[in-house]
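quick one if you have a minute, typing this from the bus. theres a chain ive been looking at and ive put its sequence and its fold in token form underneath. please have a look and point out which stretches look like helix strand or loop to you. anything you notice is useful, everything is just below.

***
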Amino acid sequence: MKADHFLDATGLSCPMPIVKTRNAMKEVNSGEVLEVKTTDKGAKADLTAWTKSGGHELLEQHEDNDVYTFFIKKG
């Protein structure tokens, strides 16, 4: 999937992936996609819930070698 913006939150632990994602989304225009990479296992539940509560859409998520990748479309 192609993203318009990218955030590398690998190596950060809770709550920093959410904080960094929230800050990055301020730079994303409505309809654009932010790709987030993190190694925080809790981010799977946290980012899913945050995306929904923020009115955004989680387009795709996957895990590869303990790196979690999320594609979030700004609402």
